[in-house]
Amino acid sequence: MQKGGSGKSTTAGCIACELALMGYRVRLWDVDAQGGGVTHWFQPAQAGQGEPLNLLHLFKGEATADEVTYATRVPNLYIVPSFTSLKQVELGPPPGVEYVIDQAIKETTEPIDVEIMDCGPSLGQLTIAALVAAPNVVVPFKASGFDLNSLRDLNRTLALTKKRLTPDQRILAVVLSEVLKSNLTRDVFDAMCNDFPDALVMGVRQSVKAREATLESIRLPLHEYAPDATVRQDFQYLTRMLVAPKAG
Predict the structure, then answer these.
(1) 194 pLDDT exceeds 60?
(2) Gyration radius (Cα) of the chain, Å
(3) Buried b or exposed e, range 86-115, using 16+ CB within 10 angstroms
(4) Which pTM value belongs to this model?
(5) Are 170 and 157 in contact (CB under 8 A)?
(6) 111/221 Cα distance (integer angstroms)
(7) Phi then psi for 109, rounded to 5 degrees?
(8) Residue 132, Cα to own-chain centre: how many angstroms?
């Protein structure tokens, strides 16, 4: 989505955690040059101080996927971190930038089961590289006019990448984040079912437990600080349906 606050990092992080808890080895790529995303939520385990080898070094050809993959506090969950320095890729993209992540995954020696890309609110080179590497797309957004406008931009980008780069691209799910019961939510839900007939369309509810969490606890994964929250239950269901879409 070409706007912030749509639930992109939350959705990517929660799906990654739930898959890891199910026993899959998951690698979460922080393809968001804004900073403050999943890298800060799932701190990479590393020795020493300073900025570790990260996604920028991969794009610059200075590191491999294995060298920028780090364990996190969640068993089976690994992260490829990024920082605001990743903006350099958009300012001066290297040749073949759209294929860098895809090629790195093919050359990795890590036994990873699932690769998840957390994209930023920009439809630039970084997002294209993520779509080429992981053409199965989950679209999170809020039921608002701003998000609906951004969805039109996203659909144009997806159509172009599918035509030119990723012919097998699929929209697996459309996720309405922080939903409340309202006429707008119902109308948006119906519209998404019509626009994406082959995708799972579902809402993730707002949660009092999650909203009332302390500052210290919200730095933890959702399944740790609010394991019984409705929002966590919704992400569990979403993840199960993505793994076995014919089960429900």
Answers:
(1) yes
(2) 17
(3) bbebeeebeeebbebbbebbeebeeebebb
(4) 0.89
(5) no
(6) 23
(7) -105, -5
(8) 14
φ and ψ at residue 179, rounded to 5 degrees: -80, 145
Length of the chain: 248
DSSP state of 98: G
List pLDDT tens digits, range 108-128: 998 999 999 998 877 789 989
Dist CA 63 CA 157 (whole Å): 29
Mean pLDDT of 212-219: 63
Q: Where are the alpha helices (DSSP H) in 108-144?
A: 125-133
What is the predicted pLDDT for the residue at 99? Answer: 95
> Which tokens hold the place of 188?
């948006």
Phi first, then psi: what are they for 185, rounded to 5°? Answer: -60, -45
Which range (27-31, 55-59, 119-123, 208-212) has the least confidence? 208-212
